[in-house]
Amino acid sequence: MTQAMPFDSGSDDVLTTAAAWRAKGRQVALATVVTTWGSSPRPEGSQLAIDDTGAFVGSVSGGCIEGAVVKEGLAAMKDGRPRLLDFGVSNEQAWEVGLACGGKVQVFVEPME
Amino acid sequence: MKRKILEALQAAREARRPVALVTDLATGEQALLESGEALGDLRLADDALAAAMQVLERDTSKAIDIGNRRVFVHVYNPPSRLIVVGAVHIAQALAPMASLMGYAVTIVDPRRAFATDARFPTVTLSDDWPDEAMEKLSPDRRTAVVTLTHDPKLDDPALAVALKSPAFYIGSLGSRRTHASRLQRLTALGFSEAELARIRGPVGLDINAISPAEIAVSILGQITEVRRKDAK
User: Fold this and answer.
1) Backbone φ/ψ region at A22: left (φ over 0), alpha (ψ -120 to 50), beta
2) In the structure, what pLDDT confidence band is assigned to residue A3 with cuts at 50, 70 and 90?
3) Is the pLDDT of residue A91 over 60?
4) How many beta-carbon contacts under 8 Å exist across A and B?
5) How many beta carbons lie within 10 A of that of residue B97, not counting itself?
6) How far is A94 from chain B (nearest CA, A)?
7) In this prediction, does ipTM exceed 0.90?
8) Using CA atoms, how far apart are residues B220 and A17, in angstroms rounded to an integer?
9) Is there a contact between A26 and A52 (Cβ–Cβ < 8 Å)?
10) pLDDT category of residue A113 using cuts at 50, 70 and 90
11) Helices (H) and strands (E) in chain B, counts
């Protein structure tokens, strides 16, 4: 039997995990899908939390760009600055990591205080 | 994200209060919006505040342009609710499917043998009389109500409360004939034709559903159709 899932937008449990990691003293960055074009697999508001070991929960795509987002998350933890990332078929990096759906997504990555 | 914002956001979510987190995508400055008030280092003018509150009302997170700034409005609403009256066979399919879709499901049935934890392991059960249960649950505009008993003693009192609420969906199981006599009884209670037109009956999309699970799909299809009508 399935569990009743405590979320609407598909992001709530990610934020709670991020908060729990932070409370344990781990460095954490949070990535959020802020804009989508075309057939993106995850809607606006979808989130991914990353800790300082590179472990992550959640998703911002169907698995295509998570690797690149984790890398930027680790960088955001180091320099303390947020960044806005664009992924799409016209983007060399996304092409490389294979955003096969043909859509485009914009992901905001921020360090958590 | 500042610690203060995170704490306020988590507290609001825990208390099931609707809030929106507004983030300036260039600077990372943020403001947490609740009931028209903003907390945080991102300064928002009145028109910006109104635009962000509108996104919260519409219940879908999105990026908007405010002046020359681009901000992301992240909507954190509590889960939408589905209230099911009648712990019947269809409810056993409807409840887990609705949970998968993100609804917080409550099943109301005063008949103890029906509403047991063993039959409904993942939902909230109420064995109050339907009108009392419905008054307590107080359906809002993010709530769907479905009656499944086709017993007037149970369905009618629940429908009477639902019709006085802003519930976004009201559906009632029963044949055309059952539904016609239901409308007559509710008319006698003083409901107008326009008010009664809110009730979807026979309930669900017409997909030739036969089994309880198929009927659940048709009901949830219709609930989705109504809920997302503005999404395109």
Assistant:
1) alpha
2) very low
3) no
4) 79
5) 17
6) 20
7) no
8) 30
9) yes
10) very high
11) 8, 11
